[in-house]
Description:
heterodimer, A: Phosphoribosyl-aminoimidazole Synthetase, Chain A, domain 2, seven-stranded mixed β-sheet, B: alpha/beta, Rossmann fold, nine-stranded mixed β-sheet, two-stranded antiparallel sheet
Amino acid sequence: MAIRIDVTSTISDARALVKAHAFQALAGSVVKKVYVVDSYLIDASLSKPAIQKVRNALTNAQVETSHVGRWLPAHFSYGIEVGFLPGVTDNVATTTQQTIEDVVGRAFKNSERVYSSQTYFIEGTLSRNTVQKIARSIHNPLIQSAIIHDSTLRKHKNVFSIPRVVLSGSSRVLDIDLEISDEELESIGKYGIKDSNGARGPLGLDLDALKAIRSHFQHIGRKPTDIEIESFAQTWSEHCKHTIFSNPIDSIKDGIYRTYIKGATKRIRAKKGKKDFCVSVFKDNSGGIVFDENYVVTHKVETHNSPSALDPYGGAVTGIVGVNRDSLGFGMGAKPVANVYGFCFAPPNKKKHLYRDKDQKMEMLSSKRIADGVIQGINAGGNQSGIPTQHGFMLFDETYRGKPLVFAGTVGLIPKKDVSGRVLYEKKAEPGDFIVMVGGRVGLDGIHGATFSSVEMDSGSPATAVQIGDPITQKKFSDAICKEARDLGLYNSITDNGAGGLSSSVGEMARESGGCEVILDSVPLKYPGLEPWQVWISESQERMTLAVPKKKWPAFKKLMESRGVESTVIGMFTSSGSCVVTYGNKKIMDVELDFLHDGLPQKHLVSKKIILPKEPLRLKEPKDLSGTVLALLSSMNIASNEFLARQFDHEVQGGSVVKPVQGAGRIMGDVSVFRPLLSSRRGVVVGSALTPHYAVLDPYHMAGAAIDNAIRNAVAVGATLDHLAILDNFCWASSDEPERLWQLKESARACYDMAVLYGTPFISGKDSMFNDFKGYDEKGNFVKISALPTLLISTLGVMEDATRAISIDVKYVGDSVYVLGETHNELGGSEYARMNGESLRGEVPKVDAKKNIKLYRAFTRLVEKEIVASAISVGRGGLAVALLKTALAGKKGLNISLSKVPSTINKKDVILFSESQGRFVVTVAPENEIQFEKILRGMVFRKIGQVTAEDAVVIKTGNSNVRIPLAQAFLSYRKTFKDW
Amino acid sequence: MKKIKVLIFSGYGLNCEEEARYGFELAGTDASIVHINDLIDGNVKMDTFHIAVFPGGFSYGDDTGSGKAYANRIKNHLWKPLQKFIKDEKLVIGICNGFQILTQLGILPGALTFNESNRYSDRWTDMEVVGDSPWLKGITKISAPIGHGEGRFVADKKTLAELKKNKTIALRYVKGETATYQDLPANPNGATENIAGILSHEGRVLGLMPHPDRALFMTNLPHWNVLKNEALRHGSDFPDHGPGLQIFKNGVNYFSGK
């Protein structure tokens, strides 16, 4: 019989107080008091003394008390009990089970399990409607249940329902008849293979792909099985294959990716010759560059947009924990040393409701709910894994209301060789190696994740695509692998189980050895009843696949066991040339690797040029310039989001150097520096930039600005162009439209041009092509929302000496303020123009890389000479915002002459707010000025003022002064996200 | 003299073991990271060490309460050797999650519960030393960052009175150099009487929420750029090591009789 243990707080409970506050915000002061109860429903047979022991183990007697059976407060009107739906990962339950097993000294049987839940009892006179509203605010119906109890609960308080998973899945494998009409084929591609339960969910295979499969099997002389078709769907998905990026487009035979992205890197590496710092690019789970003579540093940035739209918390946790595995899956396993994040959300708007269906039954989460969940997810995933979150950003635009963009990246560190001299940044599974799955078990979670994220989101989006992360399960195997097994040489290859699950990871690794044979029955499952195809493609989280030589298997298994990590042999790598899967001693999949990986028919993409808007901006210079500056400081894309940096641990691992929040004034920096190897003075620079608001006006210059901005941010903190790599993340929308493809092509062309000019190679990238939402608004009207063409450029740099890093805060009264670089009339797409409702007119910033490169190299010499007191790169909001940020960070005043700013136009608002690229604001001690100016000779720069002891930034604009008191500026900068 | 041997616990989501080891290596010890299961299986014996360290982290993801599940594992399997270790007048330190584990074990009194904000918090704090402990010898003030969601120290009246009477409050949060610089409140989490760390067993066992292991370098400080700039302008040296190191050195000094 199931036993329930409830644990309650005996002291003032911060969780309950914070919840009460949140409930009051929703329901008003009728909420008098809230109690939080942690419950453990134990579906296992335990003796009375054992139950007592378990109670003790689950209770901290100093601050908590426990009860057998349901606990009820003396007074309450309603209780909301939030638990997980059957089969959803329940981390608290996992820990509780381990605790119980340890305390009673026996392992749970297969049928035994723990389920956790939390109940919020509310005291006060509320209507059931209000309680339902509160319940909706604290649970996500896709993964959780929320049961509302009223006071009648007292009568049947010990009746519990157990959320067991009951599956009636069939173990049968279907032969699929593809000798059907085109229409029927298309329907299979769009809705999935049909079985007795209906269609299984989107395959994302188009007619050409299905016909290729058909003719392949015609040739072999048999029908394909369901698991084979599911495998093609995974392997050939946009998510895995990047067909749009790879296919020929217009006159570009080799496609965008090979021509512009890989092509740039190839050319840069050749040009750098001996100075080439790339180690492993575009071929592994992350890209790797030289850190020092003995180490390689890696980086990879992923997106997790679709899952985050449905379950923001789970989507973000699995996003960050998933990209950690791209570090662990680099070479023989790089230790994750930093996380980065980026969020593109729609501004909160309580009035806007969106539905996935016409009947308005499937409401999308509000943008604030999505933001809150995503933030909590990055918090849990990063913090629990002990990986510092060094850098990130938040950007808002209405077009992200359908699907948010959630970027998650991980930097890793790996020695070049182990003690025996084996190279660690390469790997190869050998025929005869065991295929070993490590980490979590396989369940229904994450079925069709890869195919789902490759298409638009609509009412057919599968709920099973949602996954919940379990960071601790991953932390355990992460430590066991990259801190122990790797250096003992216990395996030959390793890769992540991400999109496509085993079908992708095993299928990929099989290319190294030349084949594989998987015994699907041996895959450990979370619960019985999964169908074979589900086991093969499930994206259940926290798993790696390794190639372990037979004779090393006993040692490997023993090590994993002693670290509390499950590892299982699920087959063998072969050299047969085929991917073979058996189930119940029957062959259910047998596909040649060549066809599996290269059988997808190429498509020739055709783009169509968009006539770009040419109209000039229609903006009048504001009368109140200081008011405009303050408004910019409080805009959602510029204001302080310190609350993120505070809750994402950035100091774990002990190497923090330049933090996300800088200076006495606690201002957000653009880039961070840390020491991944405590015994070395070397620093790693991580940052990013994106300028999607320029894209509609000019996609080429949008990409140019993103790259220049990202590079300049890194240079400003002390990175050098001689050791700086970049990563691309294209998040596009409606990429089947020729106009969108043209924008894509133009942006990629700029990527090539800029990367080659700056000598900063791309080392890794990822694209997500369908960031569209198709659904209905509150009136039942059809709506399609497509995200702005968004290109995120991330940077990875190495500084020889991290103690030379430069922060953004002005340091001394009397220091001189310089502007480096030239200002042009480039207000198009700027924060200032858009704040004034002008988003579709004007000139966007254009990058003069040839000129900039000289300036950036000179800047690096200034850093080497240690004569820069502070530096900030000019970005969103223009010069005005940069001046304010650097002053606020140092909590000092500035005295600036606007007329001295090097500019090709003499208009105050342009000089203050234009987002022209290639510029820095720098402060220098007077005694260093001569040397400073000497190093910059021949560049565009000018002294524009001084750091003052005044409490204001004063900008002389000819006849009048713009005076911005620091106190007011702080207020504006900090007010926007005050309650987040 | 033979090197002092330091045992640093790891496993199940503890995650600050490497920076703790680096601190003890800088202090000149022979420091080893040992998975708790290697101690349970008897592959490594506690009594061969002089100092035991419970580092920070997220053991068991804080599920069921921070430090609780890891403490249960120790109670069930390593209780006797740990008791003996303490009785033998050796040193124990628990940092952050390690502190939580030590209170869950009852080796240190009181409890650590959810921050007043009910949110994880990473920031620098300043502390004054109020207790007498080998770990804190020669230190009057020290700054180090916190990173926790459950760091609010609470204790009932009786325990508090005993802590005061026995002078076993180790550290209190104060508005010092870093909190003044960044204009942040002294107490980061609502801890009772600003308590940041406590002692037991004549000061040989120290638990503290802030991380000296994240303050080993000057470049860890939130205002190091300002300090470095000052040093450059005055032609003075900018030191490498930060305030946290002294705690690790003190561990060694205890055994060398300094």
